[in-house]
Design brief:
212 residues, alpha/beta, Collagenase (Catalytic Domain), three-stranded mixed sheet
Amino acid sequence: MPPPPFLGLVALGPVDPEILRQLRIAITKILFLPARVLRPKPLPLQAYHMVRQQYHSTRLLEHLLTDDDSHAFRILGVTTADLFIPIFTFVFGEAQLEGKAAIISMFRLRGEVGGFATPKSIFLRRLIKLSLHELGHTFGLGHCRQDGCLSGFSANLETFDGKNLAFCKYCRALLIDYFRDNGLKLQLKRYQETPAPGDPIPAEDRRRRHRR
């Protein structure tokens, strides 16, 4: 009997192990897809652009799958390096549409260089949202036009922060169908704000739980 499918998290270059741990817990909790931290990989020199001082994200995706023997259902690369593709100044991440690999960068999630320090809770929330967004592409989701949907395109942090930590009704249905067709069970909440692990519980929810 084959082992159950899982998501592999791979650090590309130096990444805080605690961040990978919290990301693993969050993805498992939200997608009900077990996640494991796999062996890290170095950032390949051939993906680095000397003039832009950034890494080409598409080449990093290819690097993620090189010599991959993890048998992971999906692989999510996590890096602190700044990413780009030729048509954009930068990208938060990139994914293979209906493919195996996705990559996210923490570089832009911390805010403007030299600006105020981003609180850890906000940074982690951004990281979780970005991870789910890019993984959504590997499950066949394109960019959604529904206001607030996690699959929506974001050109900057202001737009990114305006998205919910949840997929819209339409994207949710597509995800459930994709998982079902691949013999997996997905338990996504309806289109509402999904709390990130560690977020405070709203007062109304606390009262509701107490009544139960």
